[in-house]
Amino acid sequence: MSPAAGPLGLIAGGGQMPLRVIAAARAAGREVFAVVVEGWGDPEDFRHVPHVVVRVGAGGYAIEQFRAHGVRQVVMCGRAQRPSLLAVRPDAGMAKMLLRIGKAAFQGDDGLLKAAVRVLEEDGFEVLPSQAIVRDALPEPGLLSAAAPDARAREDIRRGIAVVRALGMVDVGQCAVVQQGLVLGVEAIEGTDALLARCAGLRRDTPDGQRDGVLVKLVKPGQDRRVDLPTIGPVTVAGAAAAGLAGIAIEAGGTIVVDRPATVAAADAAGLFLIALRPEELTPTETNP
C-alpha cells in the first residue's frame, strides 16, 4: 500500500469495518476518500476524512467523485441493507450500470456484488478486499476464546456447516443457528443481528440450564472474497449471549473479526466460545445435512 497509488476509495456501509480500513490506510501513509451510502453508514463517523454521502441509486455520481479525487483503487465494506429495486431511483450513471449488470441485479446479494465489481473494473478501478488493508482482520484456524466447544457444540457446528453451505449455494445467507441438531434459524435479508434476536425465542430448554447452541458463519461457495465477507464483532457476541448460545464458529481466513481484542474479550466475559475453523477439513459424512 503505497502513497504513490493515490487516495484509497471507500464505499462505506455501517459498522466499524469501514473505520478500521480508514485507520489502517492512514497508518500506512495513504489518504482515503469515502463514499458513504445514505442510510447505511453514519456520516458523522466519516467527518475526519474527505467524503460524500450518496443515496443507493447514485452510483454514477459516486464514480464521478472517485475520479475527481484521483481514486484508482476501491474497497467496499460495511453493513448494508439491500433496497427494493423499485426504490433505487437510479441516476443516469447508475441506470447505465444496471443495464450492464443485467439480470444479476435481480438475483442474490453475491450475484449483484460480483456484477458491481465487474462494472467498477471495466471503468478502470481496482477493487481491493478490505483484508488487504486491515491485515489482521481474518483469523487463522484455532480457538480464540478461553471457553472451548464441547462434544455437543461440535456436532451442532458440523450441522451448521452443512446448512450454511447449502444456503450459500443458492446465494441466500452466510450463517445459521443450530441447537441440539435443530436449525433454529438461517440468515436471509434480515442480517445476523436480527437472526440472533429471532432465535432467542426459539431456543430449546436445557436440563442443566446451561448455554446451548451455536452460530455458524461461513463464506458462500464461489463468493468473491473482495466484497461482503461474513463479519462478526462485539455486537454479534452480545446477540449470541442474549440468545443463550454456547458459542460462535467462523470460517478461518474467511470471516472478518472487527476489533478482535474487544470481540474476544466480550466472548470471554459472557462465557462463550469463539472458534475459527476450516470447514473443508471436515469429512463429507460429517457435513451431510
Write structural notes for this entry:
This protein has 289 residues and is α/β, with parallel strands linked by helices. It is built from eight helices and 13 strands. The strands form three sheets. Strands 6-13-11-9-7-8 form a six-stranded mixed sheet. Strands 3-2-1-4-5 form a five-stranded parallel sheet, with helices on both faces. Strands 10-12 form a two-stranded parallel ribbon. Strand 1, helix 1 (17-27) and strand 2 (32-37) form a beta-alpha-beta unit. The protein is elongated.
Topology:
Layout: E1 8-12, H1 17-27, E2 32-37, E3 51-54, H2 59-68, E4 73-77, H3 92-101, H4 109-122, E5 126-128, E6 142-143, H5 151-169, E7 175-179, E8 182-186, H6 192-200, E9 214-217, E10 231-232, H7 234-242, E11 247-251, E12 256-257, H8 260-270, E13 273-277
Parallel strand pairs: 1-2, 1-4, 2-3, 4-5, 9-11, 10-12, 11-13
Antiparallel strand pairs: 6-13, 7-8, 7-9
Helix pairs in contact: 2-3, 6-7, 7-8
Question: Which terms summarize this structure?
Answer:
289 residues, alpha/beta, Rossmann fold, Cytidine Deaminase, domain 2, 2 domains, six-stranded mixed β-sheet, five-stranded parallel β-sheet, 8 helices, disordered C terminus, LpxI
CATH domain class name of the largest domain:
Alpha Beta
Name given to the CATH architecture of the largest domain: 3-Layer(aba) Sandwich
Rounded Rg: 20 Å
Strand content: 15-25%
Structural class: alpha/beta
| Total individual domains | 2
GO molecular function, one term: hydrolase activity
Protein name: UDP-2,3-diacylglucosamine diphosphatase LpxI
EC number: 3.6.1.54
Keywords: Hydrolase
